[in-house]
Design brief:
The chain contains 6 helices and 15 strands. It is an alpha+beta fold. It has 3 domains: about 1-35 and about 115-195, Outer membrane lipoprotein wza domain like (Outer membrane lipoprotein wza fold like); about 45-110, wza like fold (2-Layer Sandwich), CATH 3.30.1950.10; about 200-285, Outer membrane lipoprotein wza domain like (Outer membrane lipoprotein wza fold like), CATH 3.10.560.10. The strands form 3 sheets. Strands 1, 2, 3, 6, 7, 8, 9 and 10 form an 8-stranded mixed β-sheet that branches. The protein is rod-shaped.
Length: about 290
């Protein structure tokens, strides 16, 4: 698994959250996952569990309204949008101590993070926004999106977005996550995360001239496409083929620079096996010697 960090702040948050171990291939862990980042601020549709030891009537589950308030017995509508859990606890504590009790023990827990849902896009069966319960790992999120389509590629990206505009992208190999069950691949998911599962697409490279099966050769985008792989797919050289191979690299809608490669030196490991891309053309000319 490779991680590209774009902000030190979010890297620290991710490390603080920690990784959640897998218990089996493709299975969700049966252990508690980390709580969301401490800076999460309440918003409309978030579901809260409120407990007040001294006032049992206030032991309720209530959702933040579209106007940003939470309707509670005895004290009515209390503004909550924009506050953290601890700030809302403090607001409730002040209201209760001003009206009902000398000392109030208040706890607030977010059960659903609907104001900043998880978004899953790409090669999944049910892409879109998902109401976030606050205790998900990557496997949980992919399962909630209906699972992977057969057309999925080899990687999944988690884009972590913070209120200050900073982002952190995590790149995870799906084989690590789904096949090998690497605990580090099953990362915790936070509110407002974007999960992208790019689809596998076909890539065409053309091989012309003195090869046994000239024409377009189709690879998957997840394949490593190199000169030797293209020549092998084309059936190899004919008896008249030159061992000097021309590769015409595509640049936009036209062919750009041309590279001449000595096939024998590549095969012997004396030169690197040239990487090819969509639309590149390999030309094997006839040898006159």
């Amino acid at each position: 698994m490779r991680r590209r960090r774009r902000s030190l702040l979010l890297a620290c948050l991710a490390l603080a959250a920690g990784a959640v171990p897998l218990v089996a291939q493709g299975a969700s862990p049966a252990v508690p996952t980390p709580a969301p980042a401490a800076g999460y601020r309440l918003g409309p549709k978030d579901l809260l569990r409120i407990r007040v030891f001294e006032v049992p009537e206030l032991n309720v589950e209530s959702r933040v309204s579209e106007t940003g308030g939470v309707s509670l017995p005895l004290i009515g509508d209390v503004p909550a949008a924009g506050l953290t859990e601890s700030e809302f606890e403090a607001r409730l504590k002040r209201l209760l101590e001003a009206r009902y009790v000398n000392r109030a023990s208040v706890s607030v827990e977010i059960l659903e993070f609907r104001s900043r849902p998880i978004t899953v896009i790409g090669a999944v069966k049910a892409p879109g926004n998902l109401a976030f319960p606050g205790r998900w790992t990557l496997l949980d999120a992919l399962a909630a999106a209906g699972g992977l389509l057969d057309s999925h590629g080899d990687l999944v990206y988690v884009l972590r977005r913070a209120e200050n505009g900073l982002t952190d992208q995590i790149e995870i190999g799906l084989d690590d996550l789904m096949v090998r069950g690497d605990p580090e691949a099953n990362v915790p998911i936070h509110a407002n995360d974007l999960i992208n599962v790019p689809a596998r697409v076909d890539v065409s490279v053309y091989c012309l001239g003195e090869v046994r099966s000239p024409g377009a050769i189709v690879f998957r985008s997840t394949d490593r496409i190199t000169l030797l792989a293209v020549l092998a797919r084309a059936g190899g050289f004919t008896e008249r083929a030159s061992k000097k191979v021309q590769v015409k690299k595509r640049a936009g809608d036209s062919l750009g620079r041309e590279v001449v490669v000595d096939y024998r030196r590549v095969l012997a490991g004396k030169e690197p096996d040239l990487e090819l891309e969509e639309g590149d053309v390999v030309v094997v000319k006839e040898s006159f010697f």
